[in-house]
What we know:
With 176 residues, the protein is mainly alpha-helical. The chain has eight helices and no strands. Helix 2 crosses helix 7, helix 5 (99-113) packs antiparallel against helix 6 and helix 6 (118-129) runs antiparallel to helix 8. The protein is globular, with a radius of gyration of 21 Å.
Amino acid sequence: MKFIQYFSSSAVIFIIAFIIIYGVLEKKNVFEIFIKGVVEGEKLVVSLFPTWLGLFVAVGMLKASGVVDFLVEKVYFFIKSFFLYKEILPLIFLRPISGSTATVIGTEIIRNCGVDTDIGLLTSCIMGSTETTIYVVALYASKIKNKDFKPILIIGLIADFLCVLFSIFALKWGLM
């Protein structure tokens, strides 16, 4: 384990050194190129900030208003027989919107239920196989000014749904 930590820590240093040495050998002004990249990155962050802020406020409102709890109760009523743990539903609902919120929910589930339990395994599988679809599509659509992002969003949400479904099946069939 210490080897992996040492390797990952020193890999970053070697990559940075390689980039600098390569740039110097190619007779490029490495620092000037770095500063240009920082300026372009700053412009990108500033242009995406309204979208980020809107998504963070929306997630906060969903959690604070009780909409997520309401949805959990209503959906769980219909899928009890499908062998889905009620604790996982907030994770399933919020994962497409916010990765950080899903990480907090997943961490709480694993802390409360344990890592090697069925619900812990299911949580890990869902966290690893799904994507923050709405978040990613919103950021890309706002950056490229694309107004026709519905097909991408639908395909992404279907993929997330299938990942959750196959995670449940894998748990039910003893594949985890």
